[in-house]
Amino acid sequence: MAGETQRIPQATSKRLPLYYRFLQNFANAGKKRISSSELSEAMKIDAATIRRDFSHFGALGRKGYGYDVNDLLQFFRQTLDQDEETDVALIGVGSLGSAFLKYNFQKNHNTRIVVAFDPKAPKEGKIVSNIPVFHPDMMEEKIKEMNINLVILTVPSRAAQDITDRLVEIDVKGILNFTPVRLTAPDWMRIHTIDLSVELQSLIYFIKNDVKDSQL
User: pLDDT digits over 24-55, tens only?
Assistant: First the structure.
């Protein structure tokens, strides 16, 4: 069923978890098959974009039939390694970090926070929302001990690069960066930055321009 999955565009790669989530919703609702237009309406993504994304993986659907929901769900589960759990470390247990601990990703998919680090925590650790939290002095030891390759960074901006440098030294593969700092790291480390203030300002800009356009 699956075609060649190498060298797919980055924009397509970022949409794959969204496809998986919406397909789960359709499957839970008892939907057996779906068209690109139905998926487009649910996801608010152009149907042509969906068909183009799917074409990177070969013949996922059939002309005149559409897509089999369960087949698609199984395909994207395998593509995204949804059957394999990924352990994550959280660094910085302030307001945002605490919210991550309370939510934890395990409830919704295969990613879960298993350890956290914060300067206010003792070296021997404490339990917050059922997750052990240690002082950052223990970071290298615990991350290597637990074989963690993915880190969520919610520390103050002044500490972000120093923490990143330490993570590079222990070969952490990826950082989800919630600080506004543009982190410097080797090419082999993948960093995705989510700057909440920039996203908010962007939203405000578009809302204001939508209002201006409606008044023309």
Answer: 888 888 888 888 888 888 888 888 888 888 88
- 96 annotated to a ligand binding site: yes
CATH code for the domain in which residue 45 is found: 1.10.10.10
Residue ranges in 34-105 assigned as alpha helix (H): 36-43, 47-55, 69-79, 95-103
Q: Is residue 211 part of a domain?
A: no
94 is in an annotated binding site: yes
User: Does 97 carry a binding-site annotation?
Assistant: yes
Q: How many domains does the chain have?
A: 2
* Residue-wise pLDDT tens digits, 116-169: 999 999 999 999 988 999 999 999 999 999 999 999 999 999 999 999 999 999
Residue 58 assigned as binding residue:
no
76 or 62, which is more confident: 76
pTM above 0.70, yes or no: no
* CA-to-CA dists, residue 100 to 33, 89, 106, angstroms: 35, 11, 11
* Residue 183 and residue 97 share a domain: yes
Which residues 6+ apart lie within 8 Å of 38 measured at CB?
A: 66
Same domain, 124 and 55: no
Write out the residue range of the structural domain in which residue 47 sits.
10-78
CB 173 within 8 A of CB 189: yes
CA–CA separation, 189 vs 164, rounded Å?
10
